[in-house]
Specification:
Number of strands: 36
Distance between the termini: 29 Å
Strand content: 35-45%
Strand order of the largest sheet: 8-7-6-1-26
Radius of gyration: 44 Å
Largest sheet: 5 strands, antiparallel
Number of helices: 5
Helix content: under 10%
Structural class: mainly beta
Shape: elongated
Amino acid sequence: MSAEVQLAAPQGVVGPTLVNVTLGWRVRLLTILNIGETACLWRDPRLGLQATILSSDGEARSVPGSEILAGPIGAQVWVPFEGTWPLTGNDEDPAALQLNNPLAPSLVRLRARMAGATAHAIAVTVTESDLAAVSPEPIVADGSPARLVSRVRTDEQGFCLLDANEAIIACLRAGPEVDLAAYQDRVVAVTGALHAGEPALMIVHQIVYLFDVTLHFAPGEGDPLEELYRGVTIGVGTAEPDSLVWQINAGPRFSQLVKAEELNKGTVLTLPQGQSEWIYGDCHSSRFNQAHFNATRFAGGRCDDRGVFNISRFAHAPPEPVAAVFAPADPLPDPAVGVVFRWPSHQPGAFCVNLPADLAARFGGRFNKARFGQKKDTPELYEKAVTESTDDPDYLIARINANSTLVEADVVMRVPLGWEAVTIPFRKPQFLTLGAEEAPARLYLAEEGLDGFIKVEANENGAWGNEIAVSARQSGPAMYDVAIIYQGSLFENARQVALGKGPLPPAPRCQKEKAGSAARQVAPDRDLPTLIQDLLQPGPVGVLQAKAAGVRADISRDHTESIC
């Protein structure tokens, strides 16, 4: 996670610096914040570390890369530079030097392969690539991609590429996210579509600054060694053969002196997990209205950095833009600078889909409303039952009331409105009807010669009783085999279907030892298929498949618990 930092200077400041002590990195803006100005630092995904200064009037100006020093604590130099720079270090860390290309999102750190004081004999020279040493390649201007190495100049026609003899090779047109002005008068490698013309025209897709890098090794004893890398890039990637890192680590001119690595400058704004430690600093500078007349110097071109233990470097050879000085024992009198950190807070996504209680029957019974059914092919069966003589042990009403878990029976003299008596015997099951929350479902049976009607009534109110069926087959003279059938509801499965844990469940009904009991359980969860072929089979797509990875999904239904 990267932070966005704001440095507010109510009274101005020179060379504001942030040290990420947790990572061992720091960033310094070698510029001036005037009174009331604010510096903003952030990490761009493509360009890396960026900095902008906002005035008190709201006007913004960008800080060029040539005024930003960012990288691990240690020696760092902008490239190209004059003279040579030695690799420096201590007894614990190998000698190193960071090469900072102001036009690149990353820097390159060179580390000595050898340890001890011998490594300090390694020095580095970085100059702009020598265009005269580049062998010109034949130009094929047919609209296909091409790569040209030349110098960027401007004329009345715009940006052009010039060879070593100042002859125009091609005119340039910037492609998406390409800033040609930043490479004015520099030796570059440009890549893009090259079209025929006088001169040719290139649509630039990529442009990179080229350097010549020389590694010098001059030990006190032994033969000196020199390694030359021509036309290399610094800080724009390590995959291409013209990358300095690639040539030093894996190229045919494999370095015997150093190892190289590329580090993104925006790393300095990284917030590791947990707490991190940061230090703010700036350059020691004289201020108007605070300076002593004839005693104070307004230095320019150099930053005197008040020393911080384990962070500042007192070495100053060759001249660096930042030089550490001893800090005073008394508190620093400089005006305060406000530092504000902002960072995105990412939390795992989550959502819940709530299903209504009333759904089609195939999605199972309503919780606490529907009933478990009987075991398959095991209806309540009353064989050779009779409808008269209450003293008979096979009297149907007495047997039902004594044994049934579903219904109760009684003799009534008339059939109420809404029902019509069914004459026994009959084979086709007849269902109880008109069950509701306020009334139980009923069925009325009639028999020729019977005084009155037999009322079969569900033992509890509710629509569930409408699923109870009765059949009465003749088994002898005035005797009947009466079956009371209740299939019950399916297991509640709407949540599993919506979640996508497999297709709709098969037809078998819920089962429990006591038929007709309220359904208070749900079917066990079904996991996603283990084989991708099974997962891709046609079927209902649930939220487990439709949601994005890492997002938690809950499915609930009214009057039930959620599942996920």
